[in-house]
Amino acid sequence: MTSAIRRAPGRLATLGCAALVATTVAGCGSVKSTISGTGGKDSAITMGTTAVTSVLDPAGAYDFGSWMVLNNTFQSLLSFPVGATSPQPDAAKSCEFTGADAMTYHCSIRPGQTFSNGHPLTAQDVVFSIDRMKKIKDDNGPSSLFDTIKSVEANGDGDVVFHLTQPDAVLPDKLASGAGSIVDHSVFPADKELPNDQLVGSGPYKIDSIDQTARPDGTKVPGKITLSANSHYKGEQKLKNSKFVLRFFNQPADLKSALDSGDVDLTDNSLDPTVSAQLQADQIAGKGTVQVTDGAGSDTRFLVFNTKDQTTGQVAVRQAIAQLLDRTALSRDVYARTVQPLYSVIPQGITGHNTAFFDKYGDPDPAKAKAILAAAKIQTPVKFTLTWSRANAQGAESAELKRQLEASGLFQVTVQQQADWDAFKKGWANGDYQAYTVGWTPDYPDPDDFVVPLVVDGGAFHNGFDDPQISQKLVPDTLRQADRTVAASTFTAIQNSLAGSVPLVPLFQNKAFYASRADITGVAATMDSTGIFRFGEIGRTS
After folding, report:
1. Are residues 399 and 487 in the same domain?
2. Domain for residue 271, yes or no?
3. How far is CA 236 from each of CA 5, 93, 233, rounded to the nearest angstrom?
4. Cis before 381? omega within 30
5. Could you say which residues form the signal peptide (predicted)?
């Protein structure tokens, strides 16, 4: 195993600031908007979110909130257009692997592109952006996504060649993510990050201003970001608005109040699940003034096991738990059907998804679970502790998991919360927990990003699991397959293997619920499995 195959925890920042943020982020105060959320057709459109962020420089930005801004203010060589799960040329006019071994990648830059300051965007800027990110190597940044890049060179202004240390068929997906944002080499320093209010990109929007707010510890973070159409933008997106404002809220309840009052025109998937469900029910019943648009999401949530623990380290214990869990009840009774049951590590909507856990275990069955434990001569009830830190449903999630397991008479579960997110991460990294619930937000919509970061060499959750057949044979095989549909059969084998070894149990994948005022249009057009919210798709009726 090379370090390039096992990625650093990376988007655990997302877990703290986006996927798990909805009920517990501290310190991002509500900033009063100076632009009315209800105005004429040409007035700024204001979106509210609880995806609090702090760093917007692409070298250090690695959470949902920051990437939401980067995806709309910067270009990458490639991007994911609406509805696409394969990256398409953006700042590049074409990109391709030049050999069958997926070791060399070539891109030709689209001519005539400029940054919002009028500076030309060239191959030198692309090289600078990658080299800079790898040099700064921010511990909380996305540089680990580019560990397979040995070097990158510019041939004139229009051609870029990436030389890799090993096959990496998902390099195009990584370049299409927020990590691939191209920066102006004459503006950004080569060895340190640029302050948020000095950022310059070439995307469809430019940042006009950032209103800061203070956390309790005094740290300044964005409270409101005001954007306008970038007149220098030469890309393919056609904007349906000329001004867009992003506001950050501390709690879902604050965001809901802002929606009710008209201070925001729409929300991302940040409202409390039960609130989203009620708003949708009201809409169906013809009540209320808010419309809800729902769609598939790719954020996933897992029950993770410490495979080095004396109890949860036993495969039979983990298999018995997998045999008992009722995902349908969890989705219905705890999350008001705002999530959907998940039966493998790769969610629906992503190439290679299957239902490996359902295929192996079927419906919840205490008798089968008892037989699994008996065959392994494990005495019941099996006692273990389940730890959680953050969940959209708060403690109701872990309480339901405890109820389901104990109802069988086979388990005795102690539930504990570690409310401090940083302490929670340190706890699982140190092997302090027997089992714990964690969510995952992908970097890009490829099956690789739901497998490698989670199950290779302990993964981002540091649960001690590693299967050499997966990490040393199957995963490297997938990275040689530039045609991702060909790789699907290998990912099927990986998922089936994980259903047997159960280092973690997939619980659900999120549905996305975006709420908006009645005069807002285009929300459905920007909802897809990439998780990218495209500000330019949002419009306002007269």
Report:
1. yes
2. no
3. 34, 11, 9
4. yes
5. 1-26
